[in-house]
Automatic annotation (TrEMBL), chain A:
Membrane protein topology class: Multi-pass membrane protein
Family indicated by similarity: Belongs to the binding-protein-dependent transport system permease family.
A Gene Ontology biological process term: transmembrane transport
Domain ABC transmembrane type-1: 95-296
Transmembrane segment boundaries: 9-27, 101-122, 134-156, 171-192, 227-253, 273-299
Subcellular location(s) of the protein: Cell membrane
Sorted UniProt keywords: Cell membrane, Membrane, Transmembrane, Transmembrane helix, Transport
Designated name of the protein: Oligopeptide transport system permease protein
Lineage: Bacteria, Bacillati, Bacillota, Bacilli, Bacillales
GO cellular component: plasma membrane
A Pfam family matched in the record: BPD_transp_1_N
UniProtKB/TrEMBL annotation, chain B:
Annotated membrane topology: Peripheral membrane protein
Name by which UniProt lists this protein: Oligopeptide transport system ATP-binding protein
A GO biological-process term: peptide transport
Any Gene Ontology CC annotation: plasma membrane
Chief site of localization: membrane
UniProt organism field: Gracilibacillus halotolerans
Gene3D superfamilies referenced in this protein's UniProt entry, alphabetically: P-loop containing nucleotide triphosphate hydrolases
Residues of the ABC transporter domain: 5-256
Amino acid sequence: MAKYILRRIVYMLITLIIIATATFFLMKLLPGSPFSSIGAKLTEEQEAILLEKYGLDEPLPVQYAKYMVNMAQGDLGVSFQYNNRPVTDIILDRLGPSAHLGAQALIIGTILGIILGMIAAIRHNTWVDYSSNILAVIGISIPSFVFAGLLQYYFAVKWQIFPPSFWEGPIYTVLPTIALMIFPMAVCARFMRTEMLEVLGSDYIELARAKGVKSTSIMFKHAMRNALIPVITVLGPMTVSLMTGTLVIEQIFAVPGLGEQFVRSINENDYPVIMGTTMLFSVLFISIILIVDLLYGLIDPRIRVSGGKD
Amino acid sequence: MSPVLEVKNLHVHFETYGGTVQAVRGVNFELNEGETLAIVGESGSGKSVTSKSLMGLIPRPNGKIVEGEILFENQDLAKLKEKELQKMRGKDISMIFQDPMTSLNPTMKVGKQIMEVLMLHQKLSKKEAKKRAIELLDLVGIPFPDKRVDQYPHQFSGGMRQRVVIAIALACNPKVLIADEPTTALDVTIQAQILELMKDIQKKMNTSIIFITHDLGVVANVADRVAVMYAGKIVEIGTVDDIFYNPKHPYTWGLIGSMPTVDSQEEKLYAIPGTPPDLLYPPKGDAFALRSNYALAIDFEEAPPMFKISDTHSAATWLLHEDAPNIEPPKAVKLRMEGMAKGAGGDMNGDVNNE
């Protein structure tokens, strides 16, 4: 097991290097220069000084090599925009709200989705099933920013139940969380329903019934675990789409999170912040995939990895 | 001897989009203590539905017992509520399924699946249940039961899994065990082992077994009595000897005639012509009449009643009516019957030879 995890971590590092390289060169293709958007007009001379200061006058391969060496040592550089604040500082500052929002949406969405899917499966072919199905289709096909706008309009502007934006306490998290969790909820509900129906029709459930096990125990002890395996598969990609979802949702609700910062940095050609944020997202993505793979083994003994078997 | 289980005029229907499927259309039989009753018939003849309705396991809400009684220990199982059925299932009546590869929960330890029944019905503590689970695994012939108890189904072979399923079924010493084609999915060598195991355990526990199969070889090996089902009805019932040496119903003739033997002289295997009737629209009269060479005019008008041939043997065919012409079974079937009578020492008296 330890060997397996170690091997996976090596692969992760290779993936990260590839991502860093690709992002670095792609980012340099962005139009404009980091200093063109600063309010005051710079003379050519001043701009040259700034470029030299940040090492942007050197040939690209040299810049790339320097960046990679620094990053390996944990130094992500300083921002071009915020009075030379280190990128790590900016990211750490912004990480809190994003992580909070993302985790809240993912956990609530997944749990609600699983419950909804199970209820739909148990009440198969009744109005409960049909309405949960319609909800799921709506949740999957309508993008989160549409919900965000609607939620803002009705709950914040019209009925004034929740604040429309900003990030100043638990009540502020309600609307963005709902907007963000609808997609994972819908996906989970659909998967869970299909899987539950399949599992409930299987021989081992009939055997459990023949043993005299109560219907509720059959649902939770026998069926749920087996139905969860494919749901976990979608959990990985879903988390990823949730992260990209936060980019838009944070803009709409003015949440001071990473996503909002990321979009702004791209507009401002703030190379170190773009790189730093991209790397953070990548690390998260790759870790989630690893965690999902390890989760399989926890739930399904057949997929459990045996150490050292190559 | 009073019967353990008595089924009277059982009718089971399924509501489908196409209409009502009359899967079981008036089944009567009784099961005595310690005996093995084999129910044989083609796919779709209603054998499995009959056995599942005994346990209240017919898929609801589509399937329903519309008529009839299932008498077990002074109560009618057909009228019990789901809650009461749950208490009975696994304790008084339990079941072995056809495919051991899919009938165990893949994400639950084998021991836990056995312990579940014990803790549910016998209210054993976790520790006691585990001890008993190990004993049961030992009883069904699984080596190293104390290690195996903590393993998952995928670590067992097909035959071993069927042994585990048997252990689950026997955990609470049920009075009736329903085995729904328990050997069909297994290799022939493993089949023989599982049959031996079941016979062995039956002797030890005095369980009554309903053995559903379409393998007449297995029937000859395990059964005391045989019920032949066709189109949702029992068409002939009797002891093994009655059915194999003195069959009266043309359908039973067909079944026996289509059984291959080692010393078959004909090159072509006999098959019953035609297909079973559509139970959405069961035919008027005798359901087998259309496929039978011996059908009488009345067969197309009125369903035959059960005619008693001896104390143990009866069959539902108009051929047994006193006005019916005297018809002998076809030659191929006669040859087969004679062949079996000659070779009877092997299969039929297997028990005697073993002792």
